[in-house]
Amino acid sequence: MSSENTAAVSAFIEGAPPGELADVITDIQKLTAEHPQLLKAVEPAFEKYNELQLASVKLPGSTKDVLISSYNSLGDHRYYDTESQSSFSFDHPSQKASNVQPHVVDSKNSDLIASLLKTLSTYTKEHYPSSTYSVYPTSSDSELTIVVVANRYSPSNFWNGRWRSTYVYSPSASSLTGSLKVDVHYYEDGNMRLTTSKSVPSTPIAASPSLSPSALAAEITKSISSVEKKYQEELNKGFTRLSEGEFKNLRRQLPVTRQKIEWEKIGGYRLGQDIGSGKSGYGRRDL
C-alpha cells in the first residue's frame, strides 16, 4: 500500500471519536481486506491516538482504570501508574494491558503526589459519574502533571463523549497551568461532532514552606475545581446559544404550507398538491 494510503488510514485512526476506535478498526479492515498487514504499518497512529486521547484501561485483576499518556510512558509500549505503583505493557490497537510489574515512582514530590491522588479521588467522585485521574512527575522532577479524564459512552443512544483536563503544577513558582478539552460525537440520523478546548493561564496557588503536602494538595484541587466549574458554565451557555440560535435557524419549524409533513407517506405525495392540500405551496410562477 502506498505511503499516501498509509497516511490516510493513520488520519482515520487519529481522528476516531471517543470510544469508537474499535469500530474504526473494523471499518478499516473491511476497506483494506487485500492489505492485512496495514494495521501493523500504522501502529504509530494507534500510539499517538491513545496517548493524546488519554485512553483508560483496566489492569488485569483490577477494577480501577489507569491512564495511557506521554506523561507516564516508559518507552517500548510500557506505562506506569503512580497510585497502584505498577507498570504494564499496553497493546495500542486492542487497548489491552498486560504484564503488570511493581514500579515505585522515585520523586522528591512523592508526598505531594500521594496527597493529590487522595484529593482528586474525592473531587472526581463528586463531579464526574465516571472518571480516571493521576499525577506524574515530569522527567526533570521539577513539576507535576495532573490528569483528569471522564468518559461517557452511550452507543445505544448514538453518542459518546470525553472530557480531558491536564494541568502542570510548578512547586518553585507555586502556579498551575493547563488545558481543558471536550469531544462529543452524536450520530443518530446524522453525524455531528463537537470538539472544544480552553487554555488555563498561569494561576497562583497559595503556598508556603510551612504548608503540609495535604494542605497544598487541597489548594491545588480547589483551583482545579474552580477552573472546571467555570468552563462547564461557559459550555452550558454556549449550548443554550446554539440551541436557541444557530441550530434553530438551520431548518424551518414547519414547511411553507404551515403543516407538518407525514414522512411515512412521503412516497405518495405529489409535490405542491398533496402537501398543500391541492394547492401549490410555492405559488404560481408565470414565465
Characterise the protein shown here:
The chain has seven helices and eleven strands. It has 287 residues and is of the alpha+beta class. The strands form three sheets. The protein has a five-stranded antiparallel sheet, with helices on one face. A four-stranded antiparallel sheet has the order 3-4-5-6, with no helix packed on it. A two-stranded antiparallel sheet has the order 1-2. The longest helix is centred in the C-terminal third of the chain and has 32 residues.
Question: Topology, please?
Answer:
Layout: H1 3-14, H2 21-31, H3 38-41, H4 43-52, E1 56-58, E2 65-67, E3 73-75, E4 78-81, E5 86-91, E6 96-102, H5 110-127, E7 132-137, E8 144-154, E9 159-170, E10 175-186, E11 192-204, H6 213-244, H7 246-249
Antiparallel strand pairs: 1-2, 3-4, 4-5, 5-6, 7-8, 8-9, 9-10, 10-11
Number of strands: 11
**Category by helix and strand content:** alpha+beta
| Count of DSSP-assigned helices | 7
Poorly predicted residue ranges: 278-287
Question: What is the rounded Rg?
Answer: 25 Å
Main β-sheet description: 5 strands, antiparallel
pLDDT averaged over residues: 88
- 3D shape: globular
Strand order, biggest sheet? 7-8-9-10-11
H and E string: HHHHEEEEEEHEEEEEHH
Note the beta-strand portion.
25-35%
Q: For the terminal residues, how far apart are their CA atoms? A: 57 Å
The helix content, as a percent range, equals: 25-40%
The gist of it:
The protein is an alpha+beta fold. It has helices at 3-14, 21-31, 38-41, 43-52, 110-127, 213-244, 246-249, and strands at residues 56-58, 65-67, 73-75, 78-81, 86-91, 96-102, 132-137, 144-154, 159-170, 175-186, 192-204. It contains 7 helices and 11 strands.
